[in-house]
Write a structure and sequence with these properties.
This protein is of the alpha+beta class. The protein contains 13 helices and 21 strands. It has helices at about 25-40, 90-100, 115-120, 130, 160-165, 200-210, 275-290, 300-305, 330-350, 390-400, 415-420, 425-435, 445-450, and strands at about 5, 20, 45, 65, 75, 80-85, 105, 140-145, 150-155, 175-180, 185, 190-200, 215-220, 235-240, 265, 295-300, 310, 325-330, 355-360, 375-385, 405. The strands form five sheets. An eight-stranded antiparallel β-sheet has the order 16-12-14-13-19-20-18-21. A five-stranded antiparallel β-sheet has the order 5-6-10-8-9. α5 (about 160-165) crosses α12 (about 425-435) and α9 packs antiparallel against α10. Bound molecules: flavin-adenine dinucleotide (FAD). Flavin-adenine dinucleotide binds near residues 57, 111, 171 and 409.
């Protein structure tokens, strides 16, 4: 069978790639890569399900390898929960297959519609970063296809530099063909959640510090519109996996069965005026009012981890111009002041996010370009409006000053200077890149914009 290479006209696809290739089997990867090169493309990039918010999975006018059909499970140890699977397997499939057998993801981002290879390439974090760190900590080994056609295995013990350059390496060190991932044993598909409502930023941060050591998961929704005494108020959601005894007796015989909910959908792009300071204030007030302190609430895993996945095309709520998610991490040392500055600056510029999520981060996985570091991470979803990018530049400056950084998987607009000043291990990463990809064949729009690769093309 010939590799399916679809040549597409650039017109109509805007800045989309000139060639998209589906990968069906690993042995095809090499063939497809050759086809791309012979087709005159100077670079190519693996792509999962395209859930990275910015330009990490784009390679304008060049080749893109679609990984989603490289989706086989290769081995699973029922005793230890060690899964070996191909890089294109979706997290949703892992859950569907292994949760009924008592295993869940060790770390999950806020969507399950993404691939395991991409999650490693972004070194994704979840609500348990303060406790467990990012997904890289649970990767036993990787099998990579290098641009020279060689297949290599890497782990903490074997080709360690390549391993740490690939975890968080944004697809630029090789194509992740296989991942050995340690799953987490669970007794049910339910999470026991304690909700805590806080009055201001001080109380929000204090509550995190006082309580989150007792929980595997913690996350806070912040009201970024409230001013005065309510500035920085929020709702913290602490969670742990429910054991069978936590379930009502009627649910205990089927602890992995959760109610099916009908997906909702945003049918068309909402007009821009819908998200205005007044409606955002009303939304925040309503959310705050409807989330009082409550303890021991049973919530199914979809509701707790993936609230947006049940709203199809939720991005349309932001209107035609869309939105930007801006996510930074701020080291604890300067974190409180910097967080305060960020929220105040956005308010002073009347630039309000629709959603805002605050988490605490623990130790880094060691990935050279990984985002997490010990500190606070805040993700703000801003509707694109005139003047937004100037405000975001101001927020970047606060992050830079605080010694923090922005998340590559969410970024679409930071400057190369900001990136270079905040990712300290870039020189080491570049050494590995130069060894495994001396011609710079693996590239992306993100890599070019931020000059991640020396002399990138
Ligand atoms: C609603 C929502 C919530 C999110 N929440 C979080 C969160 O809580 N925490 C978090 O960390 N992230 C979060 N994200 C970001 C998202 O989870 C990650 O960017 C994820 O990696 C995207 O997976 P994907 O399969 O869609 O990859 P893509 O977007 O297609 O690609 C992402 C990157 O991975 C690389 N890549 C893809 N496949 C491979 C491969 N096989 N080998 C090598 N490189 C590869 C690509 O080149 C690209 O650089 C969220 C995204 C959404 C939409």
């Amino acid at each position: 069978m010939k590799p399916s290479v679809q040549q597409r006209e650039t017109t109509g696809w805007g800045r989309y790639p000139r060639a998209l290739c589906y990968l069906f089997r690993p042995e095809r990867v090499r063939e497809v890569a050759e086809v791309l090169q012979h087709g005159g493309m100077s670079s190519y990039l693996p792509r999962g399900l395209g859930r990275a918010y910015g330009d990490a999975a784009l390679n304008s006018e060049q080749g893109v390898l679609l990984m989603e059909r490289l989706d086989r499970y290769l081995a699973f140890d029922t005793e230890t929960g060690l899964l070996r699977c191909e890089g294109g397997v979706a997290l949703a499939d892992i859950i569907a297959t292994f949760l009924p057998r008592g295993w869940f993801l060790p770390v999950t981002p806020g969507t399950k519609f993404c691939t395991v290879g991409a999650c490693v390439a972004c070194d994704v974090h979840g609500k348990n970063h303060h406790h467990d760190g990012s997904i890289g900590n649970f990767v036993r080994s990787l099998t990579l296809l290098l641009p020279n056609g060689e297949t290599v295995r890497c782990s903490r013990e074997q080709n360690a530099d390549l391993f740490y350059a690939t975890i968080g390496g944004m697809g630029l060190t090789g194509i992740i063909l296989e991942v050995e991932l340690q799953l987490r044993r669970v007794e049910t598909a339910w999470i026991v959640v304690d909700y805590v409502r806080t009055r201001d930023l001080d109380e929000t941060l204090r509550t995190f510090h006082e309580r989150d050591a007792n929980y595997l998961y913690s996350v806070a929704w912040l009201d970024c519109v409230a001013q005065g005494r309510g500035f920085g108020r929020g709702v913290l959601m602490f969670g742990r996996h429910a054991v069978t005894d936590d379930l009502p007796p009627a649910r205990r015989p089927n602890p992995f069965v959760i109610p099916r909910k009908r997906d909702k959908s945003v049918p068309f792009d909402l007009p821009e005026f819908v998200l205005n300071p007044l409606s955002l204030q009303a939304f925040n007030n309503l959310y705050y009012a409807t989330h009082p302190a409550r303890e021991g609430i049973l919530v199914d895993y979809n509701t707790y981890f993936y609230p947006l996945d049940s709203i199809l095309q939720w991005n349309r709520a932001y209107g035609k111009r869309g939105f930007v998610q801006w996510q930074c991490v701020l080291p604890y040392e300067n974190g409180v002041k910097s967080l305060d500055d960020i929220l105040r600056t956005a308010q002073q510029r009347r630039t309000y996010p629709f959603l805002s999520v605050l988490k605490r981060m623990g130790e880094s996985s060691g990935g050279m370009l990984s985002f997490p570091m010990p500190g606070y991470t805040i993700a703000l979803d801003f509707p694109v409006r005139r003047g937004l990018f100037e405000v975001l530049n101001e927020l970047d400056a606060i992050v830079l000053e605080a010694g923090g950084r922005l998340y590559l998987a969410k970024d679409a607009r930071m400057s190369a200077e900001t990136f270079h000043a905040t990712y300290a291990l870039l020189p080491r990463w570049r050494e590995v890149k130069a060894q495994v990809d001396p011609q710079g064949l693996l590239q992306s729009d993100l890599a070019r914009r931020l000059q991640i690769v020396e002399g990138g093309k």
